[in-house]
Amino acid sequence: MAIDLLSIARTGVAASQSQLGVTSNNIANANTEGYNRQTATQATLQSQRLGDSFYGTGTYVSDVKRVYNEFAARELRIGQTSMGAAETSYSKLSELDQLYAQVGNMVPNGINDFFASINSVADLPTDLGIRSSSLGAAEQMAIGINQMQSQLDNQVKQTNSQIESVTTRVNEISKELASINLELMKDQGDNNQILDKQDALILELSEYAQVNVIPLDTGAKSIMLGGSVMLVSGEVAMNMGVSAGDPYPNEPKITASITNKTLDVDPSKLGGQLGALFAYRDDTLIPASNELGQLALGVADTFNQMQSSGFDLNGEVGSDIFRDINNPLMAAGRVGEYSSNTGTAVMSVNIDDVGALSGSSYELSYTTAGDFELTDTQTGSVTTLTQTGSQLVSDEGFTINIASGAMDVGDRFEIRPTAGAAAGIGVIMTDPKGIAAAGPTLTADSANSGNTSVSLNSMDSSATGFQGVGSSITFELNTAANTYEAFDSSGTSLGTGTITNDNINAFGMDFDITSSTTATADSFTFDLTFAEGSNSNAVAMAKLSDVKLMNNGTGTLTSVFENTKLDIGSQTKAAEVSLSSAEAIYQQAYDRVQSESGVNLDEEAANLLRFQQSYQAAARIMSTAQTIFDTLFSSVR
């Protein structure tokens, strides 16, 4: 048997042609997103023995592989997840920061304008035009708060819509990946084009949430989402969905279902765009809305209480300017009931002390019989509440009422004391004469110890024993025994009582007591005579702009809003820094993948030239073999 030059040349031509094909395909796909560079593995054919030696019989392309580094691809997916989350957080926070910087200015401006109008009323308390302007300023302030709440509500709706859109896309990708897995299982994972498409889809998926890829022996890949949900298992894909939130339906949650089983997905474990959207909604938007509600409650309660401390132009105890803080329109959304509850309890929340509110939300749980726990969701602090009648009284400025039914062990409720207030605040006073500019006169008895002072909180003309406008009432205080006795204008005793927490609420008068030392007989007289030109209560109202009434005496009315604004600005700046860091990490991972799997046109051009020369050389062998054959044929002719 002789060496078959033509056969060897043929294999060389075929192999070179294959190499040229692979190289050409690389060059053609240099700009194709998700394409991994391919290489042809060339091997020698089996040798044949001639005499005492072995001679080669040619070459062939044994395999066409794509250049792929699983570790580099994993780093890229992690970088993509981080960058997706960072981009989303920065985008949403920047939008909210702009909202507070532009639209949000009308809230503190409205409050300042209202205080200025009250100051004008104090200057000319009988001028009806100024009083009308003051009510107009109150209306504009309330509208500004309403509009700001509407903007925050729109942000929530927009974020929910984005969550739904991303979830829909995740669903589409999961189904595509399951189909690809089915094809790969048929081809045993050898189809490079399908593998590229699979990796591209997984990389896109990693932008939306954290992805863990589990290679299977069949050539397919299972995909775990967020470290807890098996999104794709072989050729089976889970169905992702968005359902009504629990306990608040307008705050949707994500679910994963397969056949007839559905489970809730923890958004805090998702990462990527989905995790960032949920974090923005739950950790920024909802708290901002609650704090705006806290401001609305503070404004309404402060001025309504001040109204009840004075007399209007009609000579009557002042009535509310704003809607009552416990009006149903102001209390919408304060309680959310979890769907897992088995009890029948219907809950409501009553605000007792606006100054003690923090803007937080709470979880109320019934742990064991008679044992209620109130957990601050922001600080994590837990307080045990005791049921008194149908009420659970907290130290946070509100009371929880069990309106009907009963709780079962394990029942939970989310409490948002300030929810709904910003949307519900409104001016209910229509008569400008109703502004209570005048106030009662407080006189301390000359024989007092001088160590005790009192401050009026409010008056209630409907209370039993109220002496009425034009009269007076005197309280003799015994701070040593924590008791008091009240007298009318003629000196007749109206009754006695106990001082509770340095406060007296009796005969229509509610006032606080401050005492540095105990005394046995300090007397104070409230002169309830109405004077048309009096402005003492209006002056007191105007001074409230600088008084720390909120957050347990640590902030003013406007500072509640300004603190929220500053916090959002701080979060936006932090998100910007995080985005820069995430982009750098992603770029590093991307460059590494490209250096290994990307197409280098210079390198491919060199390969093209090399394989072209190889092809020409193999063809030359065929030509040489033909010449030899012709020569031999001629020699024997």
What brief labels describe this structure?
five-stranded antiparallel beta sheet, alpha+beta, flagellum, about 20% strand
In words, what does this structure look like?
By secondary structure, the protein is an alpha+beta fold. Helices cover about 45% and strands about 20% of the residues. The chain is built from 10 helices and 28 strands. The protein has helices at about 5-30, 70-100, 105-125, 130-185, 190-210, 270-305, 420-425, 535-540, 555-595, 600-635, and strands at about 40-45, 50, 55, 60-65, 210-215, 220-225, 230-235, 235, 240-245, 255-260, 260-265, 335, 345-350, 360-370, 370-375, 380-385, 385-390, 390-395, 400-405, 410-415, 440-445, 450-460, 470-480, 485-490, 495-500, 505, 510-515, 520-525. Strands 12-20-14-15-16 form a 5-stranded antiparallel sheet, with no helix packed on it. A 5-stranded antiparallel sheet has the order 21-28-23-24-25, with no helix packed on it. It has a 4-stranded antiparallel sheet with strand order 5-6-7-8. β2 (about 50) and β3 (about 55) form a beta hairpin. α1 (about 5-30) runs antiparallel to α10 (about 600-635). The longest helix is centred in the first third of the chain and has 60 residues, at about 130-185. The model has no long low-confidence stretch (mean pLDDT about 90). It is found in: Bacterial flagellum; Secreted. It holds the Pfam family Flg_bbr_C. Keywords: Bacterial flagellum, Cell projection, Cilium, Coiled coil, Flagellum, Secreted. Belongs to the flagella basal body rod proteins family. This is Flagellar hook-associated protein 1.
